[in-house]
Amino acid sequence: MSRIVIVDGGPRRAWNTAQMLEKVAEGALGATADRRSTPEVVPGAAGEAVGAGAAGEAVGVPGAAGEAVGAGAADEIVVEQFRLYDLDFKGCVSCFACKRVGARLERCALLDGLTPLLDAVADCDGLVIGSPIYLSEVTGLTRAFLERLCFPYLSYDKKPSSFPKRIKTGFVYTANAPEDAYGEIGYWDLFRRNGELLERLFGKSSWVLASETWQFDDYEKYASGMFDAAQRAERHATVFPQDLQRAFELGAWLLA
Ligand SMILES: Cc1cc2nc3c(=O)[nH]c(=O)nc-3n(C[C@H](O)[C@H](O)[C@H](O)COP(=O)(O)O)c2cc1C
After folding, report:
1. Which run of H or E residues covers position 238?
2. How confident is the model at residue 234, as a pLDDT?
3. Contact 130, 85 (CB under 8 A)
4. CA 133 to centroid of ligand 1, rounded, Å
5. Separation of 172 CA from ligand 1 center, angstroms?
6. What's 181's DSSP letter?
7. Of all protein residues, whose CA lies closest to atom 23 belonging to ligand 1?
């Protein structure tokens, strides 16, 4: 069995970031079909929400925080999805338990609402983190999660990472700003830095982006004169589906 962990670092349940991550889940589960040698039908699950569901595939319905989806035979894929905004946790508290001489921690020593997610990552074969861009960074909760996830594996000793194996990882970003501004405002740098951090600690990393996202259900209800609502609607209809497709491909790449 292969385990994929998907972490939603945005607060809005059904918006851009969540939709991109649904596609990652679909892509990961879709990859199952190609890999399975002994197909097994999961009753009632085939073809539901994730859309990866021709009969005989191992499919799951992405669920609530930490809910495992998919079935569990040897060649199957389980996708576990977590929403950081549903979890009660802090960022790193600088206890340095993970840096004590002889420490053999499998994950961060601080026990709170993040612990089940950190345990899931410790046991996973692929990890994708999604976040909207807030004030030119990932969200505060995503940042706090990265501190708790990464610092324990970041060795102060000789080897660069204490994570016990190499897995593929990915980042999904969604942002309002147009891409031609990203050099100047540092987003490409942010994506590169996060990618390098994940590569150093876990293994090969990739990222996908949806820019100039659809921000409001109705632009007329919001004081948003700097945006061209018609252009955004057009982009949402024509470009966002391509972004979703790239998210799907990221999911499929994780176990390829
Ligand atoms: C608090 C806040 C700060 C934001 N800051 C930025 C920003 O610095 N750059 C940007 O491109 N978009 C920014 N945005 C827009 C979001 O990144 C964008 O709408 C994103 O797609 C929202 O994701 P969601 O639809 O999954 O909630 C901000 C939105 C909020 C609510």
Report:
1. helix 229-238
2. 97
3. no
4. 5
5. 13
6. G
7. 132
Amino acid identity, position 7: V
Q: So what's the pLDDT on residue 160?
A: 84
Q: Long-range CB contacts (< 8 A, 24+ apart) of 40-49?
A: 40/71, 40/73, 40/76, 42/70, 42/71, 45/71, 49/22
Candidates 73, 70, 90, 92; CA nearest to 81 is 70
Q: How confident is the model at residue 57 (pLDDT cuts 50, 70, 90)?
A: very low
More confident of the two residues 16 and 42? 16
Q: Which amino acid is at 144?
A: A
> Rounded to whole angstroms, how far apart are CA atoms 21 and 171?
10
Ligand 1 centroid to residue 7 C-alpha, Å: 17
125 — phi, psi (to 5°)? -115, 0
List the Cα angle 186/217/142 in 5-degree steps: 40
What integer best gives the mean pLDDT of the chain? 87
Which pLDDT band, with edges at 50, 70 and 90, does 159 fall under? confident
What's 43's DSSP letter? Answer: T
Domains of the chain: 2-57+67-86+123-138+166-253 (3.40.50.360)
Residue nearest to atom 30 of ligand 1 (CA): 134
